[in-house]
Amino acid sequence: MVREHLTGQRDMADSYPRSFVRRGKSLEMRFLAESSLSDLAVLQSLVVSTLHEIEIFMPHDEEYLSRIFQTELSVLGVLAEEKLAAYSIIRYPGMGKDNLGRDLNLSDEDLKKLAHLQAIAVHPHFRGFGLQRELAAAHLQVLERSGYEHICCTVSPKNPVSLNNLLSCGFRVRALNPKFAGWWRYILYKNKNWPVTGAAQAPIRDETALNCLNIEHQRWLIQRGFEGYRVEGNGEKSEIFYRKRSTPAMDSSSRIIS
Ligand SMILES: CC(C)(COP(=O)(O)OP(=O)(O)OC[C@H]1O[C@@H](n2cnc3c(N)ncnc32)[C@H](O)[C@@H]1OP(=O)(O)O)[C@@H](O)C(=O)NCCC(=O)NCCS
Q1: By CB distance 3.0 to 4.6 Å, which of 85, 163, 182, 200 could disulfide with 126?
Q2: Which one, of 169, 34, 52, 149, lies nearest residue 89 by Cα?
Q3: What CATH fold (topology level) applies to the domain 2-198?
Q4: Ligand 1 centroid – CA 254 distance (Å)
Q5: pLDDT at 157
Q6: Is the CB of residue 124 below 6 angstroms from any atom belonging to ligand 1?
């Protein structure tokens, strides 16, 4: 099914590789084939070994990564002098148990139209160049053209840098649940019709700021119809701002029950 959707994306794939310069470094963004699997695994290991908090990033094994490479346009890389500096992975979970739409009580029909922005990682030498936002925006464009209506991803409340980047790509926090080894994860949601920009322009009703590590109070707010939409500060002092969700008429994800 995915391959059929992807046929309509050829024009976009043709606009790659895309060259750009960040802080004097020449970089190239391009879709990666399975021949890049070992480079990706090496970068993933390096990223894991330099994490300040082990629970903020869950690595994938090579078999899992290899399966992802079987779907075209699923792995996007940024290369510097032909070396992998960053990557982004998208995945189509289908009706699998791990479909993040289940955390949002999506209907079966909607679960089929949902894709995951599965993982993004940047080599420590290339951080601060905005590559996560750049990769997320490019992969969101792939999904937008593929007919997948709902996009979800997870972020640790201990990872305000990533949270900030994804919220500024238009995602909103719609759940906060224990995942993987029981690690807390925000479940971020974006509808394909929402713009890839910060959500801050929307009217703000009943805004509340909370420390990202205040799990219970955030869950309480989410249950009462609030969504997280921007973050301020860094480290343990990071605060996430919640606002009342839009009325169904203003919100194209109105079929989601929270
Ligand atoms: C999260 C991540 C992808 C962001 O990388 P990035 O796109 O380079 O981040 P940005 O360009 O937005 O950087 C924003 C700022 O945060 C800083 N920063 C980025 N990552 C940081 C980190 N892990 N710790 C502390 N500061 C960090 C940058 O230096 C930059 O500061 P500056 O604006 O003063 O230069 C990267 O930190 C990473 O790979 N982390 C490990 C894996 C991970 O967490 N992936 C996301 C899982 S949801």
Answers
A1: 85
A2: 34
A3: Aminopeptidase (3.40.630)
A4: 32
A5: 98
A6: no
